[in-house]
Design goal:
4-stranded antiparallel β-sheet, 323 residues, alpha+beta, 5-stranded mixed β-sheet, binds 8-hydroxy-2-methylquinoline-6-carboxamide, 10 helices, globular, single chain, 13 strands
Length: 323
């Protein structure tokens, strides 16, 4: 009935907006109890009208049957890894190589972000709907994990707002916050099940479940960090502006991300983030610096080891605090 589908559309839009505020903006618009009431209301109406359920409904996050196996996915735009530096001297070399290439009369801003210690993911959206999720794999071929990424609430099933390209591939890191990791291991110990060594293994392992109902129980989150394939639309001309645009479309970006004017700013950011590392709610294994201007990125291009316009500044491994 038209009245019911109208009511369902409105209810879904309200719930999607609450999800956006909670997961992308980290700024809830309603108390949890109100959110839960709305979800129960939606589930009740959909139960009465199963023919009115659509895959983008916020109730459709957990698949039914486990898969037999994983399909392979070819990354049209390869997912590259980053070259590493381990100290300030090597970071200054990275900066010098760029300056030499661009010319010392071409200043360039850099985007600094924590390097989350999780598992990389590629999300493909077509006409605003999540079409498929894939692991990085070897950068060229990954595994289809759509059924599992759909269970992660910080991954939108449907883009918010408008003006997004017909096809956009959003890349990011799926991670397990320290608190969720500790609780998962407590439950595992209590049930005599295997525990995970660290949050990165826990995140990667949770994504490789054939049964999405298990993944749905895991405290996974996602921060996006770049865009791959784009068709039928265009994006801002700066990396940071693209990430802010992705936030408007429903994605979470890392709150510690900063733009600095030069490599001196990177060194200051490094000291700031290293001092803050142990108090962050998630594991990081360093910092990623990227040249902000996309035209300069194009001009700099790639080497076999990765983009010339990006580098990972690795932190020393955090001593494993045995519990
Ligand atoms: C291009 C690229 C590749 C891997 C990345 C990985 C991370 C990360 N682990 O947070 C962040 C980035 O901005 C990345 N950027």
């Amino acid at each position: 009935p038209a009245a019911i589908s109208q009511q369902l559309d409105e209810l879904r839009a309200v719930i999607n907006q609450h999800n956006y505020r909670y997961y992308a903006m980290d700024d809830p618009s309603v108390p949890d109890a109100e959110y839960d009431r709305l979800m129960r209301q939606l589930q009740a109406i959909e139960a009465d009208y199963p023919e009115a359920v659509n895959p983008e409904s916020p109730t459709q996050r957990v698949g039914a049957e486990p898969l037999e196996g994983f399909q392979q996915i070819q990354h049209e735009v390869p997912m590259l890894s980053l070259d590493n530096v381990f100290n300030s001297e090597e970071l200054l070399d990275f900066d010098r190589r760029i300056t030499e290439r661009l010319g010392s009369d071409t200043p360039f801003r850099l985007v600094c972000e924590p390097k989350l210690d999780g598992a990389a993911v590629s999300l493909l959206y077509r006409h605003g709907k999540l079409e498929r999720g894939a692991t990085r794999g070897d950068g060229a071929v990954g595994e289809d994990i759509t059924h599992n990424v759909r269970t992660i609430k910080s991954i939108p099933l449907r883009l918010m707002g408008e003006g997004y390209p017909d096809v956009i591939e959003v890349r990011g890191e799926i991670y397990m916050p320290k608190k969720g990791f500790d609780e998962l291991n407590e439950r595992a110990r209590a049930n005599d099940e295997k525990t995970f060594v660290n949050p990165r293994n826990a995140a990667a392992g949770s994504l490789r479940m054939l049964d999405a109902r298990i993944t749905a129980e895991r405290p996974l989150e996602m921060c996006c960090y770049s865009v791959g394939l784009v068709e039928g639309g265009d994006l801002p001309a700066g990396h940071y502006a693209i990430l802010e645009q992705l936030q408007q479309w429903g994605f979470r970006i890392n709150s510690e991300m900063r733009v600095v004017d030069n490599v001196q700013g990177c060194l200051e950011y490094h000291d700031y983030l290293l001092a803050k590392r142990s108090s962050l709610p998630y594991d990081i294994d360093g910092i990623v610096y990227k040249v902000d201007d996309l035209e300069l990125q194009q001009e700099l291009g790639f080497t076999a080891k990765g983009p010339r316009w990006a580098i990972a500044h690795k932190f020393p491994a955090e001593e494993e605090i045995t519990k």
